[in-house]
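Thread title: Can someone regenerate the structure for this chain?

I was given the following input by a collaborator and told the matching structure tokens would be attached. They weren't. Posting the sequence so someone can regenerate them.
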Amino acid sequence: MGPNETPLSDQSQHRTVRADTLKQVEPDRGGAFVLRPYSLTDAELGGLPAVLASAPTPVRAWVRYPATADQVHGLALAWTPRAVYVEWEGSGIHRTWVWASAVESATASQSATSNIPPQRHQVNVVTIRDTEPLVALINAQLAHSGAEFVTSMAQPAGPFGAVVFGSIDDHAVPLEFFIEPASNMCAVHLFDMTAKKVFAERVAAPTFEKAIEGYPWAAAIDMLGNT
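Best answer:
Regenerated them for you:
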């Protein structure tokens, strides 16, 4: 375990940690002045939980410096609905938080040219367009509790996910759809933006339909009513 890693519980298949505990890492330059890339601030990370990749995933990411931006070939080590924790090699190891919209999955050929191990299998993806029928399936589950998720907007969430912002009974609750690239397992996640808490652990399944069926929606609605 490295100095910037955080011990995690094995209670769920998808291991999570507070995003702001994953700090920026820069090579030791012996006191020499070198421009550092910008990393998202704790406020920008928003206190959200970060999912740790069970296997680092090759990506391309735009990293901003004070006067420029560089696209690096690196690895996604963790991500939240809005940001990705990226590692890359450049005269040493760098780790930085960037916005999810600045990151895309790297192909095996692109990874090979950057000395990054290629992905071992084809990874499923979820796009904003895919979320509409998934939200309809969720609302079918919520109907048993007399609730409904009302969508306001959707956006990509890292290279293997999407998040749909909306509300249930006037509570702001984004839905996160996530694919674990190492296992190709799908998961859905409901998060309370106001209370900054998770209603229930993710349920991993081979498809989003199965993950939605297995998620404890009734218990989540009960918790929402108590906030």
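Residues 128-142 form the longest helix (15 residues).
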